[in-house]
Amino acid sequence: MAGTEHLIIERQGATLVLTLNRPEAKNAFSLPMLVGLHDAWIEADADDAVRSIVLTGAGGAFCAGMDLKALAGGGFAENDPARARLAADPELHWKAMLRHHRPRKPVIAAVEGVCVAGGTEMLQGTDIRVAGESASFGLFEVRRGLFPIGGSTVRLTRQIPHTHALEMLLTGRRYTAAEARDIGLVGSLVPDGTALKRALELAEAVNEAAPLAVEAVKRSVYETAALTEAEGLKRELEIGWPVFATEDAKEGPRAFAEKRAPVYRRH
Questions:
Q1: Coiled coil where (predicted)?
Q2: Fold observed for domain 7-207
Q3: CA 245 → CA 65, 214, 239, distances in Å?
Q4: Could you say which of 96, 235, 247, 263 has the lowest number of CB atoms within 10 Å?
């Protein structure tokens, strides 16, 4: 799996590590970065050897969102080869930012430094979130005369309490990592410089679980989120019952009884 000039892709065991690599711009989005992210999500879904994905940023920053300097200057370079990809798929950038695509594998965010605007929006498309103690968050769009169109007006109130979501959306203020943890935007704080280490530890814990069960649990959580309780419970059975018919469902209890590590084979 190849990256691009602004996205580094590495494999660590069963974990795919995606590193936004534009540190001179605090990893603000570029077309090559978005193309790389889009392709990485799709390829990770298709690769059964990948059981988890870690998303992080280079140079002590996560992502500053849209490149406002490029936008003010009229956009990205006309000769950027990534433009052809965007022209062929007008929703490519939304898929890259996890607005129009949800990977079937768990995505763990490792946040250091700034994670603002589009960075905070993409963060909402991840499943587990770890942040360094000096990280900062926020949706600044209303202060720039813009709109957080990456999904925040829909997702944020579903992920954190209503009043906190509206405060973040309507004031456009910056949030500390401690505040982000307290309102539930991120799950845990770690010393600066160790977010990736902690994210990889969480990824390894995911990797040790049965992949079919993990993917079914994630699918059920998201597919039932907007349903009534009765509808959600019905859908949960539809997704969950088939897991019990798999060989992996037999291997887990067998390995427990035999006091050994299970060997899951995705069938």
A1: none
A2: 2-enoyl-CoA Hydratase; Chain A, domain 1 (3.90.226)
A3: 43, 15, 12
A4: 263
